[in-house]
Amino acid sequence: MPRYFFHVLDGRAAIDDKGLFLANETQARVEALRGAGEMLADADMNVWLGNEWMMAVTDATGSILFKLRFEVDFPKLRTGLGA
């Protein structure tokens, strides 16, 4: 089974040096979403301070397979055309 690594950046880096052995990339996607939900629920609220939360999933060679990004936006607090 291939090994997948789930690296998290949320204002600081949490490099996964152990990884998980999973049957395929589809299972890695499921695990990434499950893990992201748990991590965001348990987070120290940095995401509410405007910090982007990102998980990069890599294979054993270090190639990025996909990324999950989560960011909180407060449109009422912004001004200008970008709001």
Q: Which oligomerization state do the chains in this entry correspond to?
A: single chain
Distance between the termini: 46 Å
Helices and strands, in N-to-C order?
A: EEEHEE
Category from helices, strands and their pairing: alpha+beta
Helicity range: 10-25%
Number of helices: 1
Structure write-up:
By secondary structure, the protein is α+β, with helices and mostly antiparallel strands. The protein has one domain (3-77). It has one helix at residues 25-42, and strands at residues 3-9, 13-14, 20-21, 53-58, 64-70. Strands 1, 2, 3, 4 and 5 form a 5-stranded antiparallel sheet that branches. Strand 1 and strand 2 form a beta hairpin. The longest helix has 18 residues, at 25-42. The model has no long low-confidence stretch (mean pLDDT 88). InterPro entries: DUF6894 (IPR054189). Residues 3-70 form the DUF6894 domain. It comes from Shinella kummerowiae. Pfam families: DUF6894 (PF21834).
Offer a concise description of the structure.
The mean pLDDT is 88. This protein has one helix at 25-42, and strands spanning 3-9, 13-14, 20-21, 53-58, 64-70. With 83 residues, it is of the alpha+beta class.
